[in-house]
Amino acid sequence: MTEQLRLSVSKTKTFIDCKKKFEFNYIQKLPKKDWDFHIFGKFCHKVLEEFHQAYVEGCTAPYNITMGESYKKALIEYKDKMTADMKKDCWAIINKYLYLVTKDKNLVTSVIGVEKKFDFAVNEKLVLNGMIDKIQIDDDGVIHVADYKTTKNKKYLKDDWFQLLTYAYVILNEDPKVKKVRASYILLRHDFEYLTTEFKASEIRKVKDKYLGYVEQINSETEFAPNPTMLCNYCDFQNLCPAGKTKALDSSNIYGEVNWT
């Protein structure tokens, strides 16, 4: 019997984008770099997680006090990795969010969960795992899942809903009676702009077949050929991949996410 394959959105996306990177990362399990844009994204996520979790647990303190405490807590974990510019950029982002939640308290009161972990067997071939940044209940009673993005360039997200569709599948798996799920990418560098769509239950159920298709592709893959693109600039394994090294361009000061990781 074939062992169950564990897949997350990022692991699946890596296979789709570049099979050679998938091999380096998930089969050979080679060490990865600490990219500034990854650290910055994780830090911003951590601040917002601490902030919303406090109110999910019943916090009654003013928003500015809780946000300040959340920033300090996140800094304890990331202080040795954050540059002064990165701290300044994150501080500007959370101050913008403070302004928004002051104008619309529903941005806080509607949230029912943050950094929700999931890890469950889809069937005997696949285990799906990952984490949802934020879950809220909108005014119309619809469950709304969201993922924070710190990208400077939002073009790569256009019409690319697979990550959010996966999160909608998690919600439907927990409650098969759900008829639809609302889902958004929240663009932290773009004044918390929402890129939002809705999935009907019939559409959500189809993601299972997509993942099972990727399971078959991964299990049958033998060559793991590289796929050189602009993303080679940000690949952990650029120096081990001649095709990627040739493709890579010189880049700096990029803090935003450039893919699904």
Any key phrases for this structure?
261 residues; 10 helices; Lambda Exonuclease, Chain A; disordered C terminus; 6-stranded mixed β-sheet; 19% strand; alpha/beta; 6 strands
Describe this structure in words.
The chain has ten helices and six strands. It is an alpha/beta fold and 261 residues long. It has one domain: Lambda Exonuclease, Chain A (Alpha-Beta Complex). The longest helix has 21 residues, at 36-56.
CATH topology term: Lambda Exonuclease, Chain A
The name of the CATH architecture is: Alpha-Beta Complex
Structural domain tally:
1
Major sheet: 6 strands, mixed
Q: Tell me the span between the first and last alpha carbons.
A: 31 Å
Portion in helices: 40-55%
| Structural class category | alpha/beta
How many individual helices?
10
**Beta content:** 15-25%
SSE arrangement, N to C? EHHHHHHEEEHEEHHH
Average pLDDT metric: 92
Q: Please state the CA-atom Rg, rounded to the nearest Å.
A: 19 Å
Which parts are unreliable, with pLDDT below 50 for 5 consecutive residues or more? 250-261
Using the coordinates above, name the CATH class. Alpha Beta
Specify the overall morphology.
globular
Beta strand count? 6
In short:
This protein has one domain (5-218): Lambda Exonuclease, Chain A. Helix content is 45%, strand content 19%. It is built from ten helices and six strands, in the order βααααααβββαββααα.
Task: Please give the structural blueprint.
Blueprint: E1 5-7, H1 9-17, H2 19-27, H3 36-56, H4 63-78, H5 84-103, H6 106-109, E2 111-121, E3 126-137, E4 143-149, H7 162-174, E5 180-187, E6 193-200, H8 201-205, H9 207-220, H10 242-247
Parallel strand pairs: 1-3, 4-5
Antiparallel strand pairs: 2-3, 3-4, 5-6
Helix pairs in contact: 1-2, 3-4, 3-5, 4-5
